[in-house]
Design the sequence.
């Protein structure tokens, strides 16, 4: 099953009459990492949720190369503040697999594998809710990756993490990219955007102001606002 | 004070001699209440989870009604069940009136709103925590309900124990539908009411202390079995 290209036409989401994001026109191809940038409140999270299908599409269309149901099952989402199931680390990892009918033993095997990949293999039996912020985010990432999604959304995955945890998360993301997983992540960490981005979506007031290759965006942004944002000015 | 002491010593005597009547009505109390608790929980807990995850038109009204029904007067429930189960009632042919089954039915009706309301509170909080994740994982309605019920099991235990507390100490409804028939439907609470009426305060108090002891023992057992408060914060 092929997810991409993704075609978004006039997509909009409104809440109580207020437009949160949109209208957005977008064409996304099937490889690399798209980094969504913009100041707080520009609609990064909502755009990600809209593409993922977790926010209500009130106008326009979002079309995948496959059916909506197939698209849903080939995606995963990592939240800014990780949601931990009140279970052990191991059970958090096996949960999405068990939902899909994977047998207990296979799920356990894969969970142990993924725990090792993100450095949580010593904590499999610990309750997930007592992990530190960095460990929780790594667990959330592993739990998203364990279903081998074709597309992974990450909403400011390292916003609350320190340098070391950020580096570990980025290493996992790079490995995912290398194995062909498509990433769409939002961040307002410019360094992270430069390190990971293949292309950049620059968002302001719920509108996509710029959509260009990363190199081009960082070296010669087309809009005044993007230029100001990259300079570190406060964009409003 | 004298009556209280007499009651305590009577309770002691009943327990030490393992009085056969006491054992019989205690076991019947347990049988009726635990059966009602099992049936009530099996209805109320999934209902609470359903109300937490499903958005439908009358949801808020249903929750409000459920909360209001927590204060359902047992005597009225007993009366209604009596009318339904009596010979001339719609379920008269089943011949359930003045049997433990009728008492179980009445207690289930009394505790379902209580268990469902208390359970709903904690499930609602858990659902708001899990909502984004489970939506993102594309979880079906029944998987949502099962996940919530499992992950909130400690809080649900508390909800069930509240139901147990209400059922074990309940007298109005089971007196009406059970009839307090010796060796058939007499339980601890109805026996206490009877002995008080007969003026045998020592025996009534003795039975009362046994009832309190029973309620505490069952609570402790369930807590111990569920290992509440032992693993982290849930």
Sequence:
């Amino acid at each position: 099953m092929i997810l991409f290209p993704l075609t978004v036409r006039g997509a909009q989401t409104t809440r109580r009459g207020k437009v949160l994001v949109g209208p957005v026109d977008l064409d996304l191809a099937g490889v690399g990492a798209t980094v969504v940038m913009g100041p707080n409140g520009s609609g990064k999270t909502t755009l990600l949720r809209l593409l993922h299908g977790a926010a209500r599409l009130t106008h326009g269309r979002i079309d995948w190369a496959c059916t909506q149901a197939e698209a849903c099952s080939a995606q995963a989402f990592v939240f800014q503040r990780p949601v931990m199931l009140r279970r052990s680390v191991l059970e958090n990892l096996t949960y999405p697999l068990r939902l899909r009918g994977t047998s207990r033993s296979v799920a356990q095997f894969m969970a142990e594998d993924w725990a090792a990949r993100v450095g949580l293999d010593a904590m499999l039996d610990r309750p997930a809710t007592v992990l530190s912020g960095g460990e929780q985010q790594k667990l959330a990432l592993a739990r998203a990756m364990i279903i081998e999604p074709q597309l992974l959304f990450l909403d400011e995955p390292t916003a609350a993490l320190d340098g070391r945890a950020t580096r570990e998360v980025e290493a996992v993301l790079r490995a995912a990219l290398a194995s062909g997983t498509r990433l769409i992540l939002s961040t307002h960490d410019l360094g992270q955007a430069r390190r990971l981005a293949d292309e950049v979506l620059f968002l302001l007031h719920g509108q996509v102001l710029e959509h260009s290759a990363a190199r081009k965006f960082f070296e010669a942004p087309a809009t005044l606002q993007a230029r100001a944002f990259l300079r570190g000015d406060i964009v409003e | 004070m004298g009556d209280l002491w007499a009651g305590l010593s009577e309770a002691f005597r009943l327990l030490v001699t393992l009085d056969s009547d006491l054992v019989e009505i205690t076991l019947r109390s347990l049988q009726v209440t635990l059966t009602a608790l099992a049936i009530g929980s099996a209805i109320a807990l999934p209902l609470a989870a359903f109300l937490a995850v499903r958005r439908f038109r009358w949801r808020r009204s249903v929750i409000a009604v459920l909360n209001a029904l927590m204060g359902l007067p047992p005597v009225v429930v007993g009366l209604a069940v009596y009318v339904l189960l009596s010979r001339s009632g719609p379920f008269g042919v089943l011949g359930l009136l003045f049997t433990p089954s009728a008492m179980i039915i009445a207690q289930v009706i009394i505790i379902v709103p209580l268990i469902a309301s208390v359970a709903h509170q904690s499930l609602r909080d858990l659902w708001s925590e899990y909502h984004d994740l489970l939506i993102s994982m594309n979880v079906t309605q029944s998987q949502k309900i099962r996940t919530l019920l499992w992950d909130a099991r400690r809080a649900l235990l508390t909800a069930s124990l509240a139901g147990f507390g209400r059922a074990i100490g309940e007298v109005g409804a089971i007196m009406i539908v059970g009839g307090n028939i010796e060796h058939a439907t007499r339980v601890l609470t109805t026996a206490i009411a009877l002995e008080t009426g007969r003026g045998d305060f020592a025996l009534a108090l003795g039975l009362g202390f046994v009832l309190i002891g029973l309620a505490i023992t069952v609570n402790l057992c369930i807590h111990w079995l569920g290992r509440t408060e032992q693993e982290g914060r849930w």
In short: Chain B has one domain: 20-187. Chain B has a mean pLDDT of 89. The two ends of chain B are 43 Å apart (CA to CA). The first helix of chain B runs from residue 2 to 16.
